[in-house]
Amino acid sequence: xxxxxxxxxxxxxxxxxxxxxxxxxxxxxxxxxxxxxxxxxxxxxxxxxxxxxxxxxxxxxxxxxxxxxxxxxxxxxxxxxxxxxxxxxxxxxxxxxxxxxxxxxxxxxxxxxxxxxxxxxxxxxxxxxxxxxxxxxxxxxxxxxxxxxxxxxxxxxxxxxxxxxxxxxxxx
Length: 172
Hints:
Blueprint (H helix, E strand, L loop, with lengths): L16 H4 L3 E5 L3 H22 L1 H21 L2 E5 L3 E4 L2 E4 L3 E7 L1 H8 L8 E3 L7 E6 L8 E5 L3 H13 L5
Parallel strand pairs: 6-8
Antiparallel strand pairs: 1-2, 2-3, 3-4, 5-7, 7-8
Helix pairs in contact: 2-3
């Protein structure tokens, strides 16, 4: 009987091409301060309902309130991934063959592109608690969307991953 160690790879092993082609991954979640505030709000529910209706109601209401806020926070999380062939931002995906210029924006530039310098046709994935973003110009004559504006905590790293994927030769 053959034993496999951590360095042994079976002959029929085929690496997952999607996982091996992953160039960048970022999960945008709410800041820690929001969790602290939701905990404090739940504590205030505990005190208000607990003093008025009793401790069981207080604990139950506080737990339900915190669970509701946690569900909202979890559903608001966005995952950004870049592979050799596509960009995914949440459920939206863009083939890199349709991507033109990539620009990392600091806080001031991102704020300008979200407001006075914005195009109403742009695709926006913005989070108010993230100040920096990346602007992705779309190079497709059939697409009415001129650019994507995506919030990111690491705009330079995302722009570098996209630029690297665009410069890399296509896989067979």
